[in-house]
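Example (one chain per record):
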Amino acid sequence: MKISPKIWPYSIGFSIIAVFGFCVATVFIVEGAHIQESDRYMTNYQQAELNANHYIKNRIAFDKKYKITYVPTTLKEESTLRFKVSDLTGQIVKNAKLTLFVSRPETHAYDQKLQSEVLKDGNYIVQNVKFAKKGLWDIIAKVEVGKYSRFYNIRVDTRNKIFIEN
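Predicted structure:
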């Protein structure tokens, strides 16, 4: 069986059109994808990348003057979270502003953005934090003291009393 020499130009042309079609389809599929929030800086990942140096410099400046600590508690469906903000000598900072973002690692369906409500016994308290499902949760705290700010990231597990600082 002999193949006609006229088939090769048609095969090459069809291959070029198919590759171009796949490229166009890829662009449309990617444009329709949802942009996920950054797990570190409470913003989309493009802004997090653009401002990464700014966030790192702020963290270094904050850590030279202050310290933030998560006070672990047993987490239930609705819990109260506590954070301690102190200077390097151990004195409690009373004028800090704490913004909390709580999220599941795999979805943003249960996201919560909360403010610290009370300073009690040296702890910044965030009440009514809802953990709708058992398992891992990301907690991102943005702490601001005057011109200094820092993001503090932890991962907690509602099944156990464990947490991991990032």
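Caption: The first helix runs from residue 7 to 31.
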